[in-house]
Each structure stands twice: as C-alpha cells, then as structure tokens.
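Re: How this chain folds, sequence and tokenised backbone to follow

Filed under: protein folding, tokenised backbone structure, sequence and structure records.

Contents: The amino acid chain and a row of whole-number tokens, matched residue for residue.

Body of memo: The sequence and its backbone structure tokens, given next.
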Amino acid sequence: MREQMKKFLFILSTLGILLSPAIANAEFAAGLSISKNSLDTDGKEDVDSNGSTDATKSVSDDFTIPSFFAEYAVMGDRFGLVIGVDMIPGEADIDKRSITQDACGAKAGGGCPQTSNGTNSVEGTVEDHRVFYIQPGLRLGDSAMLYVTYGDASADINGKSVSITHTDINSTKSLDGEMMGVGLRRVSANGIVFKLDYAKTDYDTVTFTTDNSTKATADLDNTRLALSIGKQF
C-alpha cells in the first residue's frame, strides 16, 4: 500500500510540473512553523514473548513545538505543486508514567507463590523528526492554493522502562510513518508565504525486547495543526 502510494505521488508530481506553463512560476521558500500536536500512544506488553498480551496502556500527550521548512513550489494557471521538507530541531518527550503494583513471579520475587511490589514506569523521547512531503493543490486566484498533503515521516524514538516484571529498557529505534492532511497556502505581494495545515501521521509500530524476553510494543499516532510563515525567493 505504501509503495503504491509513493508511485502514485511520483506520477502526480510529474503531472504537476508538466501543468506548469513556465519555469518562471517556480519558487523556493523557507521559514518557521509552529504546531499544536496531540500524540496518542498505545502500548502493549508480552511478558514471555509468546504472542499473548499481558498488559495494555493508552496515553495522550499534547505539546506545541517549532519546526523549520524548506520547499519548492511550481505553479500553473489552475493547479500547483509544492515539494518540501519539515524538520524539528530537537526532541519531544512522551511524559513519564508510573504505577505501583504487586507481581506474582516477578524477577525480584523468585517466582510464584512469592509476590513482590514496586513501581513500573515508562517514558520516551522522539528526536530528529523530519517529513518529506508533496502538496498538490488547486489555485485560488493568483496568490492562494488549497492543497492536500502526503508526507513520509521518520524519526528516532528512545524508550525507557523500569518494571518489576522484566529487565529495564533503554533503547533507541527508528520510527517511520505516513502523513496525510489538507492545508491552505498564500503568498503575499512581497513574497511572504503563509500556510495553515492540518495533518495526521500514522507511525509504524515499534518493538522493544528485554534481556529476559519481554516484548513491549508502541503504536504512535500524531495529529498536528500548524501555522507556517516563510519567505519566497
């Protein structure tokens, strides 16, 4: 499905360039975006990696974060196409969650019928986030365009977990995802670019496995509303 989408977008990009009547209508722009994000994380734990789910947890984190974008826009009489990249300079934290519980057969308890109690905690950090995107759209007059967005997102996620049922986790994994959205782009007479975007990114599931064969998975989805301001050259 993902490869088919990429092929479709390649064809769409080519058509968008062919629809442009003159290279003089192609412009480069760069600027700053401020986005309001809602990151939803669904976590699962398989204590002995046998395919069963022993624990689940869903959390949501809201945060506002800046990013930088650079893009190339080709405009025809009726249609336009923007190809660009958006990069977050830094990292976004998934808030630490903790719970105190009893466990039968935990590594610290020596197995059933002994029980132990303690605090389980999990936290994460998403860093080096970048999205390569294309935005084909319909022009609204000479200065505005209504567009749809498809983006290929990638980042690194560092997961940390302390548990009484498994050995601790401190590992970094690659995170990939697909972004889909809609937006409005406008360029003023003096070349100032304004964009308003709404998009959702569906990330692939990442898996962490501990030394004692406990498998933890995290499925992340992010909803983003962004305002961007830049300069066209």
